[in-house]
Predict the structure.
Amino acid sequence: MNRSGIGYDIHRLVEGRKLILGGVEIAYSKGLDGHSDADVLSHAIADALLGAVGERDIGHHFPNTDESIRGISSLDILKRVVAILREKGAVIANIDATLIAEAPKIGPHLAAIRSNLATALGLGTDQVGVKATTNELLGSIGRGEGMAAMAVASVDIK
């Protein structure tokens, strides 16, 4: 049986944090605020995968009240989500994700991001689509106050 899930995440940009997207550290004056490394792209993918198998969201599985996971790499979160899928007999078919941010330019980092995500998920890079767009200067994302991501996951369940 083929199932799909959708994920969405948004984080504020703040001073004094590294900007991590798809496990890639990107040079920028601000980073995303959060309990983990705040990798908004990986979080949206995790939620899409969890949704595809009928699980609760990333906040349930990785709560911001759990000090043992403070600062955790979101690639490690993805690896743990893959383990949850395995327990349910699910195999990831593909991921498609879009990052929404005004800056910095993501294009130069897309190959590394796709590679990192594919490795963490146990997929080929041809199974991981990642795109980036702006918010056309509209709203909080358009003003550069944060970044968002959305993702769709397709899984096959035995």
